[in-house]
Amino acid sequence: MIALRSRHLLLAFAAAPLALGLAACKKDTAESAAPAGSALAKIAAPAGQKWEDVITATATGGMLMGNPQAKIKLVEYGSLSCPHCARFAQEAMEPLKTEFVASGRVSYEYRSFAIHPQDIPLTVLVRCAPKESFFPLVEQIYGNFDAMQKPLEDPAVQKAAEAAGSLPPAQHYPALADALKYTDFFAARGVSVDQAHACLANIQTATQVANNAKTYGEAGVNQTPTLVLNGFQLPADQSEWPKVAEALRAAGSR
User: Fold this and answer.
1) CATH fold of 4-18+58-250, please?
2) What is the reported pLDDT for 34?
3) In sequence order, what are the beta bridge partners of 74?
4) 232 in helix, strand or coil?
5) What secondary structure does DSSP assign to 68-80, as a single string?
6) Max CA-CA distance within the chain?
7) Distance between CA atoms of residues 249 and 62, nearest Å
């Protein structure tokens, strides 16, 4: 979990350039039961490809893995600074890809829901590389979650993050990412420091991340992870991976 002091510091930092909003809980649809259906046949990927390598940017601000025409659609609203999302990813990502997405019957869309200010530079950075790198970078963040949170406990890091808030808008997020060691983390994974700084300096991109969060909140998403299966928002007690896998099979991926 993020230390309270550092979280307050980062919230204060983000308040000036961007506004993040959450709305009251409201399900995506009026359905009252998880979707169920007959077993679906597997669908072959395009020649020379695997469905888990087919990545598509969506109009909703997400990134979709798999067959864009899959009849079973799983959407996750996740925060890149959320420990529950990290645990879900650590348990789910490999079987989700190999058992479900690879079959062509299931697509998986990740929508980054910026509930903490550090989610903004993290989201910008995972989208800074080619789209094929998006999910591997998200997996790297979640797989190294504790190590990435550790700098938030350091008073020197907190001071540097606070100082970043006084910089001109185009320098806010490069400085914050440097303070939180994000640029070093991504540089070790193929996104150079110069490339990261250029992406983070684009305030329009950061603003879009925040606007997406506002839109998701207004649609009723109020926690992370929130999982939506074919338009049905799974209850919180069914958002652990074994329950999600059961729901995918019940929907026809079996």
Assistant:
1) Glutaredoxin (3.40.30)
2) 74
3) 108, 229
4) strand
5) TT-SEEEEEEE-T
6) 57
7) 24
Cα atoms found within 13 Å of the Cα of residue 137, Cβ hemisphere only: 26
- What does the pLDDT average to over 185-195? 98
| pLDDT tens column, 118-129 | 999 999 999 999
How far apart are the C-alpha atoms of 42 and 254, rounded to whole Å? Answer: 9
Which spans in the chain are helix H? 4-15, 83-95, 119-126, 134-143, 145-149, 155-164, 169-179, 182-187, 193-200, 203-218, 241-250
pLDDT in tens, 79-125: 999 999 999 999 999 999 999 999 999 999 999 999 999 999 999 99
42 DSSP assignment:
P
Report the SS3 class of residue 112. Answer: strand
The CB-side HSE value for 6 (13 A sphere, CA atoms) comes to: 21
CA distances, 25 to each of 78, 92, 168, 223 (Å): 16, 25, 35, 9
C-alpha–C-alpha distance, residues 167 and 150, integer Å: 24
Distance CA 141, CA 153 (A): 18
Contact present, 161 and 180 (Cβ < 8 Å): yes
Give the pair of three-digit tokens for residue 208. Answer: 């879009």
Helix (H) or strand (E) holding 128, with range, is: none
Q: Cα Rg for the chain, rounded, in angstroms?
A: 18
Asked whether residue 7 carries a pLDDT value surpassing 60, the answer given is no
- Please tell me the pTM assigned to this model: 0.87
Domain range annotation of the chain: 4-18+58-250
Average pLDDT over residues 184-197: 98
Q: Within 13 A of 212's CA, how many CA atoms are on the CB side?
A: 25
Percent over 70 (pLDDT), the chain: 87
